[in-house]
Amino acid sequence: MKRFAIKFLAGISIFLVIAVAAGWLAFVPSAKEPGYEFVMAWGGKGSGPGRFNDPTGLAVTNDEVFVADSRNGRIQVFDYNGGFKRQFGQPGEKPSDLKRPMNLRIAKGELYVAGYWNDRIQVFGLDGALRRIIGGSGSGPGQFKAPGGIAVAANGDLYVADFYNQRIQQLKADGTFIRQWGTTGKVGIGSGEFNYPTDVALAADGTLYIGDGYNDRVQAFTPDGRFSTKWGGPFAINIFGPFRGWFATVTSLAIDSRGAVFVADFYNNRIQKFTPDGAFLTAFGSKGSGPGRFSYVTAVAVADDGTVFAADFGNNRIQKWVVKGEEKWNR
């Protein structure tokens, strides 16, 4: 009897080991690309040029980095090596004022700013001149409650992550409502439902990617608006975690020139990279304050040459990364 019990327990132990291993292989993929290496960082807490108070958004041109310096109520602009160039905006309610600017997008020579605390999208020239304002406070079509991110289509249509309204809105360039994904004011975990969406990004083929913030996942929709896929944790149903391909609050999305999707994984203190259909490629970053470490990463942007910039929220700085083994300094 004792021998049988020992064999039984051994069998159970082997089964559990196999089950855990199978679960790991099924839900925690291995890296398929080289990682990234830290190049440099700039910033520090403050209100002077080149200093930040909660950086929350990033956008890049071929030679400049735009940073949403949220609690300082401004946009700061730098070269690729962190050299300060100019700034615009101040805290307030006036048309050109900024109240907690969040994720940024650049399209056709204009900077789109998601205004979290003033419930609007502001569009600036790259020189900082205000050109127009889209939206206003509310839950009706074309209105916002804390917009967190924006994408701009080739035809000028806008896609806005409407955070507290639990929806994504598609608008014409002048702000006229076209359609939405999600039910206004209702949290959900199913496909096409959201739990505080934070950002949106458009691929070159028109695929719409949505950072479904507190559902800890990314959702993708076809160019005609149909649900395509979702990823993050087992079955992408609001299960957070530290494993590869999982998230602990998605805060920002970026798409590189090859269509890869980069995701700012806020509480996991890292950036993750995926194929267009959600297959895990690589990840970089860890918690801390030293080089290459994050204290909550809020935003990510990718230059045409593949350089990655990340907003290191708690450390009040911007970090620059490149693929391991690539030339780091002449960029």
How is the topology of this model organized?
Elements: H1 2-27, E1 36-43, E2 55-60, E3 65-69, E4 74-78, E5 84-88, E6 101-107, E7 110-115, E8 120-125, E9 130-134, E10 147-152, E11 158-162, E12 167-171, E13 177-181, E14 199-202, E15 208-212, E16 217-221, E17 227-231, E18 250-255, E19 261-265, E20 270-274, E21 280-284, E22 286-287, E23 293-294, E24 297-302, E25 308-312, E26 317-323
Spans where pLDDT lies below 50 across 5 or more residues: 7-11, 13-25
What is the CA–CA distance across the termini?
A: 71 Å
Order of helices and strands: HEEEEEEEEEEEEEEEEEEEEEEEEEE
The average pLDDT is 92
- Radius of gyration from CA coordinates: 21 Å
Strand content: 35-45%
Give the overall silhouette. globular
What is the tally of beta strands?
26
Global structural class: mainly beta
Largest sheet: 4 strands, antiparallel
Assign a percent range to the helix content: under 10%
How many H/I helices?
A: 1
Trace the largest sheet across and list its strands. 1-26-25-24
